[in-house]
## 1
Amino acid sequence: MSGASTERTPVDVAVGVLVERDGTGREGRFLLTSRPEGKVYAGYWEFPGGKLEAGETVHEALARELWEELGIRIGESFAWQELVMDYPHARVRLHFRKVYDWTGEFQMREQQAMAWESLPVASHPVLPGTIPVLQWFAAERGFTGPTHRD
Ligand SMILES: Nc1nc2c([nH]c(=O)n2[C@H]2C[C@H](O)[C@@H](COP(=O)(O)OP(=O)(O)OP(=O)(O)O)O2)c(=O)[nH]1
């Protein structure tokens, strides 16, 4: 296989969509975090997560990343959407999982920032791979209009 095609093999990424729910189960705010300094797209807002390590399931990778980055322990996670994104730096397969239960105090272990958001999102700028997620939320919630600032 040529180097170029090997480079474009998607890297699997586990992404957590932490959502608050009220007593009736209705979904409310969701968590965005900013990408830390030193990473590609530093300062852009995204959903927390990271790449799978060898032998991990998506849930295991998500639980590990949220512990490492945010200091929280998650309960169950629920497969929601998948998306392949082609960036100049990488081709990634994003596995978005919704999470409703977690324990612990949020700690910004990578000096990132966090924001509990609703539509339209105030955090700016958002990562290209985040925009489809906002559109899925809009569809689920019957929200119309821009989901974020350009
Ligand atoms: N965490 C996360 N990554 C996303 C989202 N949308 C999106 O396109 N990506 C892309 C950006 C990166 O190319 C890739 C995630 O890789 P990363 O560099 O953040 O993962 P990592 O924490 O494992 O990083 P590292 O150990 O390799 O530094 O997925 C998203 O909502 N959350």
## 2
Amino acid sequence: MTATFVLDGVARRYTVPGDRPWRRVPRLALDGVDLTVPAGRDLAIVGASGAGKSTLLRLLLALEAPDAGTVAFRGDAVTPRAPGALRRAVGVVAQDPGSSLDPRLPVGASLREPLECLAVPGNHGARVAELLDAVGLDPAVADRRPAGFSGGERQRIALARALAARPAVLVGDEPFSAVDPTTRRRLVTLVGDLARASGTQLLLVTHDLGIAQRLCADVAVLDAGRVVETGPVDDVFARPVADATRTLLDAVLPVGAR
Ligand SMILES: Nc1ncnc2c1ncn2[C@@H]1O[C@H](COP(=O)(O)OP(=O)(O)OP(=O)(O)O)[C@@H](O)[C@H]1O
């Protein structure tokens, strides 16, 4: 079966302010990344702050082009100019639900948007009600604007929006970080259940190794712009090979210990 994503020798360079106001220096956010995401295998991308995780997602989503190397989605090269089938097949949920929900629109209209943009057949009103119900909200709230919801509720709505057009792949950049631990636990279970029910493949960036293990079969560890370890999440966490993986595992605070 064709892999969902294949990255081959991908590099991404930004220029950032240097030691003088007029100086700009290059910073390599991704440095020769080779990564294959097989179809049907949920993948967590983990790594320290600044390792390049969000940059990797932006390239996978064809929001930015690599400076070197190629990104392919289901066998076809993707770039911002030629995203191909990517936009239709992938739902995206960001860390900050505010960024995916228009504050001026009632949430029902926000949920309808992807259905209309992608000309999804069927009754959109009924689908919106079904989505709100699936994420544990009363469909009657469709008339309210995002400001009328808590952070956790907004994150649920953002999730419903990302799943609205029944994407083959759900890409999330820290989608559970903006909520309290109880809501997070509920959302993690919800995402797992919804993804399983609809056969949606998950591709998640997370700092939370527990979430990575709970939701994903595989993990890729990023360090300083390189993939330093990949494999089944249980194996990698039980027998880490890369120093960066060990450092991440050592940093997890066990509850109950002092
Ligand atoms: N638009 C940009 N302009 C300049 N530098 C950038 C830009 N985006 C990312 N970088 C730099 O590239 C590197 C990787 O950033 P990225 O956001 O991908 O890391 P990350 O692993 O997602 O970090 P975090 O976990 O803190 O979100 C960092 O050094 C960052 O400062």
